[in-house]
Amino acid sequence: MTELSKLYKQTILEHNRHPRNYGKPQECTHQAEGLNAICGDQVNVYLTIENDIIAAINYDGESCAISMASASMMTEFIKGRSVPDALQKFDLFCKLMNKNGDVDHIESLEKINTLVTVKKFPSRIKSATLCWHAMAAAIQGVPNATTE
């Protein structure tokens, strides 16, 4: 097993067992539901945006370990960023996770790069990207997102 594969496995397990920012907040300014009907993943992303900064980001839902871990990692990574920066990170993450792309690392994604190992299992890419699509939809005022 490569070092990246080991790190990926450890990261997924850690974030799945001890999710960060999990739960619906009492208040938020933006929210969206992400649904991957094929595998049954469902995630809600809640944002509090103040002065174009993501002051808080939470999630909840019923999803597989990869989807939940990706959401946990995303919330840690996105919190405190400006809206334009968060949307740029969304675009970069989609580029990283493109199964037909040859990108295997994007420096500015930092620890999020560990999720690139999901590309070895193309059917799981949608699970890893669902929360990111929901986050972008919430920012844009769209109530629903899908990876279909």
Please summarize what this structure is.
With 148 residues, this protein is of the alpha+beta class.
Describe it.
- This protein is α+β, with helices and mostly antiparallel strands and 148 residues long.
- The chain has a single domain, classed as Sufe protein. Chain: A, CATH 3.90.1010.10.
- Helix content is 40%, strand content 20%.
- It has four helices and four strands, in the order H-E-E-E-H-H-H-E.
- It has helices at 3-17, 65-78, 83-97, 125-139, and strands at residues 30-36, 41-50, 53-62, 144-146.
- The radius of gyration is 14 Å and the shape is globular.
Helix coverage percent: 25-40%
Summarize model confidence as the mean pLDDT.
Answer: 92
Inertia-based shape: globular
Level-2 CATH architecture: Alpha-Beta Complex
Alpha-carbon distance between the termini?
A: 31 Å
Main sheet: strand order: 3-2-1-4
**Which ranges are low-confidence, i.e. pLDDT below 50, for 5 or more consecutive residues?**
none
> Any idea how many domains?
1
Strand % is 15-25%
- Largest sheet, described in full? 4 strands, mixed
Strand count: 4
SS-based class: alpha+beta
Number of helices: 4
| SSE sequence, one letter per element | HEEEHHHE
Keywords, please?
Sufe protein. Chain: A; alpha+beta; 148 residues; single chain; four-stranded mixed β-sheet
